[in-house]
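User: Run a structure prediction on this.
Assistant: Running it now.
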Amino acid sequence: MRYLPHTQEDIADMLKTIGVDSLNDLFTTIPEDCRRKTDLKLPKAKTEWELNHHMSGLAAQMAVCPDYTVFIGAGSYDHYIPEVVKQLLSRSEFYTAYTPYQPEMSQGTLQAIYEYQTLTTRLLGLDVANASMYDGASSLAEALLMSIRITRRKKVAISRLIHPLYRQVVRTYFAPTGFEVVELPVSDSGQTDMTGLEDMETFACVAVQSPNYFGCIENLAAFEEKIHSDSKTLFIVSFTEPLAYGVLKNPGSLGADIACGEGQSLGIPRSFGGPGLGMFAAKKGYMRNMPGRLVGQTLDIEGKRGFVLTLSTREQHIRREKATSNICSNQGLCATAAAMYMATLGGTGIRKLAALNHDKAAYLQGLLKNAGFEIPFDTPVFNEFVVKFPKDFKKTYTNLLSKKIVPGLSLTPDYPEFPDHYLLCATETMDKADMDLLVKEVTS
């Protein structure tokens, strides 16, 4: 889309119409000490062609598939997307639809969201799902706030093995609230240490990610038993890789009260980190405390099936003090893509794909172990795992980058107690030859 700015004559006409002399007059309601006194230091303007060249140069600095062989997941996963999903999603009635402000006039959009909600509840094993949220991180933060509304307690516990960026978003959400966030430590098994949960009656909820950031599968049944020893504390399961539930028991079947996380794996390309899809499901009894929107099915006066915006609990629709969140838009297009993806694969397809992901990661993990590298955690994993490389691995890492291979993600920046530990991922997109080549390169 080209940028077509207003001319000075256009601006003068608009200012005259509203009765002010300059653009600066539009900001007189802002206190002077809150206004910028100097001009922004912007670079010299470029032509369209110069700008395109500049953007191409920036993009070339990124190591992305398929130009590079990337063994990184860490919350954003490379999966094949069926062509039918891409083609259907590009239809104008889906592609241009926006969040339904006049919902009953948007039957197609509402039905697409309703189907997404239905498939989400089946995948996660819970009663109700909302119309989606911004991303996995905001879904988790909203789930924690939801638990506080329900229990009236002011302290939450979250695993340190929840994605580091999700935990940062939680800290940002909670900073002005006065609510307390307690982080549960990492155990020697690469799972969450539950020993900090002795005073359960003080917590509004406990949140755990499975598979966790290290790729390890948490013992959710043990958490459920511990957490629900207090009748009020809620059990929240977060996730970054929903395809794992094709082979693992889903959160609802293991007693979770709320499941929330990232749905990017379900038919949404990585796209340099966004957009994502915040998935959110809960038990029916907590429905009125859910953030965001919920689409329902009904019958019209002629007995025909129709769709309505059943719940829309934000401050624009109800009294501000009763709003459950300030989420102002669902990820409609991404949710539609996820619904198409789940419907295309079906239950059998998701199970087969999940098994393939598990087997690919197990193959790569076995190769590295047999090559003499330490696998620090013997806990079962899904499609990513941690390996400890030698102390001089940084040189090898740089050398592999020059060969267009990205051999994992260092854990040290977020977990300094794990030096030389790397997180590796292998999905169905990873060829056996690529994995064999990686092991050959790191052992040579």
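DSSP finds eleven helices and 14 strands in the chain.
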